Amino acid sequence: MKLLTVSVGTPKEVSYVDRKSREKTTTTTGIFKTPVDSRVMLRRTNLDGDGQADLDAHGGPDKAVYVYAKENYDFWAAELGRDDFSTAGQFGENFTVEGMSDEDVCVGDQFRIGGALTVVTQPRVPCFKLGILMRIDNFQKQFAEKCRVGFYLRVLEEGEVGAGDAIESAGTGSVRMSVRDMMHLLYFEPDNVDGARRALEIEAMSPGWRSSFEERVATGPRVVAP
């Protein structure tokens, strides 16, 4: 496993065509990230030099940094028939990595990256701003359906990180559920209460995702009228 690139960016206002009104409007977003050459300090809530516009959805102790795998780049290049991707930050990620697929990485896995110690907290939930970045209307729906969404990290020990750093496994949780499986469970298996119960055993999971699974367990499976 390897950290290929570290990318940061600060919020800016961008224009786009709204799907409903078909009129040009503006929004503020921090999804546009640019690779940095120097080493960067990874802190409890963020990377130095990085910023988010929507602090409810991004950043903070449970989503300090967003990770996306090079293997997913290859998938989307083939899926979309595109060869114009940036080498890093194309999906709004901070860390572009190699050898950390959504199928293999589990929520609760710990990783030593450079001088920092981190733990995986949840899959990434895409919003319409990803479509703006990709220049594909409603791309966030396709992105979510493929469950190749990447993941967020919580910082257990702050430290400097930089392109080329090796990524080492530093521990796993007692319950193994991959990033891809958890994404599919929450968004595409609404009646899977047993899966939700199993997910709730993952101590490192972010509070937002925990709340969603708790609600499912409390409500139970949907009852469909005959």
Q: How many strands, which pairing sense, and closed or not: the largest β-sheet?
A: 8 strands, mixed
Q: Beta-sheet strand percentage? A: 25-35%
| Strands in their spatial order, largest beta sheet | 4-1-7-6-10-9-8-12
| CATH architecture identity | Beta Barrel
Count of individual domains:
1
End-to-end distance:
50 Å
Oligomeric state = single chain
Can you tell me about this structure?
The longest helix has 13 residues, at 207-219. With 226 residues, this protein is of the alpha+beta class. A hairpin with a 2-residue loop joins strand 8 (110-113) and strand 9 (116-123). The mean pLDDT is 92. Helix content is 24%, strand content 27%. The protein contains six helices and twelve strands. The protein has one domain (2-174): M1 Pyruvate Kinase, Domain 3 (Beta Barrel).
Question: Briefly, what is this?
Answer:
With 226 residues, the protein is of the alpha+beta class. 24% of the residues lie in helices and 27% in strands.
Comma- or semicolon-separated keywords:
8-stranded mixed sheet, M1 Pyruvate Kinase, Domain 3, single chain, 27% strand, globular, 226 residues, two-stranded antiparallel sheet, 12 strands, alpha+beta
Task: List the SSEs and their pairings.
Elements: E1 2-8, E2 12-17, E3 24-29, E4 34-35, E5 40-42, E6 65-69, H1 70-80, E7 95-98, E8 110-113, E9 116-123, H2 128-134, H3 139-145, E10 151-157, E11 159-161, E12 167-171, H4 179-188, H5 193-199, H6 207-219
Parallel strand pairs: 6-7
Antiparallel strand pairs: 1-4, 1-7, 2-3, 5-11, 6-10, 8-9, 8-12, 9-10
Helix pairs in contact: 5-6
